[in-house]
Amino acid sequence: MLTHSPKGTKDIFGDEMPLWHSVENKIRALCQSFGIEEIRTPIFEHTELFLRSVGDTTDIVQKEMYTFDDKAGRSITLKPESTAGVARAYIEHGMFNNPQPTKLYYISPTFRYENTQAGRQRQFHQFGIEMFGSYSPALDAEVISAAAQLMESFNIKDIELRINSLGGPECRAKYNKALKEFIGSNIDGLCKECKARYEKNPLRVLDCKEEGCKKIIAGAPSILDCLGPECKEHFETLKSILDSMGIKYVVDSQIVRGLDYYTRTVFEFVTTSIGAQSTVCGGGRYDNLIEECGGPKTGAVGFGLGMERLMLTLQAQNGQSEFKPYRDIFIGSMGKEGFIKSQTLVYKLRKAGIKAEADTVGRSVKAQMKYANKIGAAYSMILGDDEIAKGTAQLKNMETSEVSEIEIENIVDVMNKMLK
Ligand code: ATP
Ligand code: MG
Predict the structure, then answer these.
(1) pTM of the full predicted structure?
(2) Is residue 399, in this structure, part of any structural domain at all?
(3) What is the 43 CA–ligand 2 centroid distance (Å)?
(4) Could you give the 3-state DSSP secondary structure of residue 408?
(5) Domain boundary among 265, 285, 318
(6) How far is the CA of 247 from the centre of ligand 1 (A)?
(7) How does pLDDT run across 268-327, given as a tens digit for each residue?
């Protein structure tokens, strides 16, 4: 127990860290170019927020939430997704009073009690974008194009954008009726859970991952046939904008997404390179959520992208990246005076922005040089009593083994020149 992290959680460090940094840097640069600002909401919220927004018949709420009472008896939930928290913040801080649209992004740990497997953890990370304050399909296109641009910037192959429209409440009511009829006549072949879903929320049946259910669902009526004229027009305009942007997509009427708050546009980016957990990014429009949570009626679109799944895709495509350690200089020492001087110089070099390292564990000179190699030092120097007395030392280029005599006190200038 003490030496293992809880099931479904992972320590991220070492070889994996450069990939995380590079993905995060790309995300931040992308959001900057789209004029999207970062928001950091709390890791936990009142449970009620998720019941209201995610929907109490969804898998997330029914099976996957980490919910507990705090010491004052309030029901608290670790965020199973971030849209609800961002929507709450949008209302709480009156962001609807700002010029619209409001464009926000987050990178956040996310918690779901799920069966763990590759690409499915209990604590994972999502990058997401939420845009509020417009009903125009241009906002849907902006959100989708941001995700598409991110995939393109990583040169991800084998990824497909799938879009669909769930319509508004009226289209949905019409579709639910048609779907219920269809499911009703196929009910015997469905799994136990789908039989329950059929009564409470038939749309969720389309989301089932059981093979038997998937086969039956393939023949289900299409929601696109139930769209009213306005929803149809919205979807058509979105497609025209995506076409004009040169963003490729396929229309897939089976995409419904696992959360109840979606209206009209829904979309997913699906890859074929990481096996069963193939949805890297999913999102859509949610025009009723802000009002549902107590704010003014507000059009909104967003997506959530699984960072771990994105990285699994990148690794499947590009191979595991190797972490190569690197330091500009290692300053070794022999004897007390040299030891103290090496610490002083390293501090001075670091203040000048040079990646310097000295011995801090009491190694022999031979072991210190071995260590300098291990940490990828470009240069090295050893300070003993002689060097301290003369004020000069040998600076060694670790790659060529070339040596030059330098004034110890000039080390910052010398290094700056060498590293140019
Ligand atoms: P799935 O159908 O795979 O369960 P989902 O529909 O529940 O996904 P969303 O709620 O849309 O997922 O979350 C957005 C993204 O977050 C997913 O597309 C996926 O990349 C990632 N994600 C979701 N759940 C997990 C998890 N347990 N572990 C790792 N990543 C996850
Ligand atoms: Mg899920």
Answers:
(1) 0.92
(2) yes
(3) 19
(4) helix
(5) 318
(6) 23
(7) 999 988 777 789 999 999 999 999 999 999 999 999 999 999 999 999 998 887 788 999
